[in-house]
Amino acid sequence: LLSFVLTLGLVEVGLRVSGIWVGRHSDTMFTVMEHDALLGWKMKPNANERVSFVDVENIPVRANSLGFWDNEFKVEKDPQRRRIVCLGDSFTWGLGVTENERFSNVLQQDNPGFETLNFGLPGYGTDQELLVWRNIAARYRPDVVVLNVYQNDYVDNMFVVRSGLRKPYFQWS
Q: In the chain, fewer beta carbons within 10 Å around the N or the C end?
C-alpha cells in the first residue's frame, strides 16, 4: 500500500512539473495563431473561431486584419477620447474570458472618454511585447500605454520556441 501511494505521489509531482494536464478539456488557443517572422506568432488575420482552454471551452475569438483580438485599429485619433494601448500576454489577450470581459474592453465600456487598443497575445514575453510596440502599436500614438507584466513573462523571454512556434530571442552583443 505504501509503495502504491508513493508511486501515485511521484506521478502527480511528475505531471505537475511537466505541465501536462490530464482532464477532459483541451487547449486549442494556438489553432488561431500563425507564425509571424517578426513577432514569432500572432492571430491569423480576420480569424473568427471558437477556442477552448484548460478550464473553459468554446470561447468565441476573432482577429482584426493585423492579427490581434480587437476591432480594426484606426490610426486617426478621436480628439474627444484618450487612447490607451494595452500590451501583454494571455492575461491581456483575454485567456479564458469573452471579449467583453477583458479588462481593456471593460475599461472602455465603463469610460466613454477612453479608446482601448488591445495588442496582447498568448505566450508573449516582454521581448515580443517590445517588438509589438516598436513595430506596430507606437504608430497609433496612444496617450497611455499599459504594459501588463506577469511572472511567467521572464521565462517566456528565455525560449526560442513556445507552443511549437519559433519566437524572437534577444542576446547581449
A: C
DSSP 3-state assignment of 84?
Answer: strand
pLDDT digits (tens, 9 = 90+) for 144-173: 999 999 888 888 888 887 767 788 877 777
Global pTM value? 0.81
Please name which of 75, 68, 128, 73 lies closest in space to residue 99, comparing C-alpha atoms: 68
Residue type, 139: R
Residues of the chain with pLDDT under 50: 24-25
Kindly give, in sequence order, each residue whose CB lies less than 8 Å from that of residue 9, ignoring residues fewer than 6 positions away: none
Decide the pairing of beta strands 40-43 and 59-62. Answer: unpaired
At 130, give phi and psi (nearest 5°): -60, -45
